[in-house]
Amino acid sequence: MSTNRSTVRKTLGKWLFAALFVVGGVGHFVATDFYMKIIPPYLPFHRSLVLLSGVIEIALGVLLLVPQFSRLAAWGLVALLIAVFPANIYVYQHQALFPLLPLVHALRLPMQGVLIFWALLHTRR
Predict the structure, then answer these.
(1) Nearest alpha carbon to residue 108 among 78, 87, 79, 122
(2) Helix axes 46-63 and 70-83, enclosed angle (nearest 10)
(3) CB-neighbour burial class of residue 124 (10 A; exposed 0-12, middle 13-18, buried 19+)
(4) CA nearest 93: which of 19, 18, 28, 42?
(5) Contact at 8 Å (CB) between 80 and 64?
(6) Which one-letter DSSP state was computed for residue 100?
(7) In this predicted model, which residue has the larger pLDDT, 120 or 99?
(8) Domain extents in the chain
(9) Contact 44/87 with Cβ under 8 angstroms?
(10) Closest by alpha carbon to 91, among 106, 112, 77?
(11) Cβ neighbours of 117 (radius 10 Å)
């Protein structure tokens, strides 16, 4: 019985994690201007980066649910989360551009580590 619950929990966790990225990726197309504001100015081609990262988020989220590609997708999500971390730092450093409570901005940074850990859970066989 506990094995069945564990399997259900893992499956639901994977679906939730995948949905997080699919929905987030769609957001890149729905709110492109918002996402462009969080890209540090030293990076070029803001619009292209936003749209490309949206496609990658959606693709990796979907592939996470395909057993043959799940581990590869999880590693891809780890890489993506590391790649977008400079945007989180930029948002933290320029909080006036994004009017939220300072605590919310501060929590975004360690949340990236939580998401990386969650992705790493899906890299195991």
Answers:
(1) 87
(2) 150
(3) exposed
(4) 42
(5) no
(6) S
(7) 120
(8) 2-121
(9) no
(10) 106
(11) 11
> DSSP string spanning 1-62?
-HHHHHHHHHHHHHHHHHHHHHHHHHHHHHSHHHHHHTS-TTSS-HHHHHHHHHHHHHHHHH
CA 122 to chain centre: 14
- The token duo for 35 is 């996402």
pLDDT in tens, 30-48: 999 999 999 999 999 999 9
The yes-or-no verdict on residue 15 having pLDDT over 80 is yes
What band does 58 get if pLDDT is binned at 50, 70 and 90? very high
Token reading at 91: 């948002």
Distance CA 60, CA 69 (A): 9
Across the chain, mean pLDDT equals: 93
Sign of CA dihedral 31, 20, 70, 119: positive
**AA letter at 54:** G
Given this model, what pLDDT does residue 102 score? 86
